[in-house]
């Protein structure tokens, strides 16, 4: 699924012509996970490269898998939120890997790896 800013019916925000083709939402199912992405146009207030990146979110099937993914993928990177029990009931962490890609790893026992 791909939705561009120009495809929004009456978004309430004027979309500059040079940003009309930017991606508002894109989703690619991969097994039990969904790879999602988006562009961030100027009207949303963030215009630098580091802030405009989307995050890759992985729903693990167990705490052990979440730890393995988090520790392996974050090695050499910058941990933003250490993986731990979250206030909303899941086991969650966020980091930027050594290549600058942002990740969210989540295990929620209520869903067992299903987004």
Structure write-up:
- Helices cover 10% and strands 36% of the residues.
- It is built from one helix and seven strands; from the N terminus they run ββββαβββ.
- The chain is elongated.
Give the key terms:
115 residues; mainly beta; 2,3-Dihydroxybiphenyl 1,2-Dioxygenase, domain 1; 2 domains; three-stranded antiparallel beta sheet; 7 strands; 36% strand
Summarize the topology.
Layout: E1 2-4, E2 23-30, E3 33-37, E4 55-59, H1 63-74, E5 78-85, E6 91-96, E7 102-107
Parallel strand pairs: 4-7
Antiparallel strand pairs: 1-2, 2-3, 5-6, 6-7
In whole angstroms, how far apart are the ends?
Answer: 16 Å
Order of helices and strands: EEEEHEEE
Average pLDDT, rounded to a whole number, is 83
- Overall CATH class of the largest domain: Alpha Beta
Strand content: 35-45%
Over all CA atoms, what is the radius of gyration?
A: 16 Å
CATH architecture of the largest domain: Roll
Report the strand count: 7
The CATH topology of the largest domain corresponds to 2,3-Dihydroxybiphenyl 1,2-Dioxygenase, domain 1
For the report, how would you describe the main beta sheet?
A: 4 strands, mixed
- Shape descriptor: elongated
- Helical proportion? 10-25%
CATH superfamily of the largest domain: 2,3-Dihydroxybiphenyl 1,2-Dioxygenase, domain 1
Number of domains: 2
Tally of individual helices: 1
- What is the structural class? mainly beta
- Uncertain runs are none
Largest beta sheet: strand ordering: 4-7-6-5
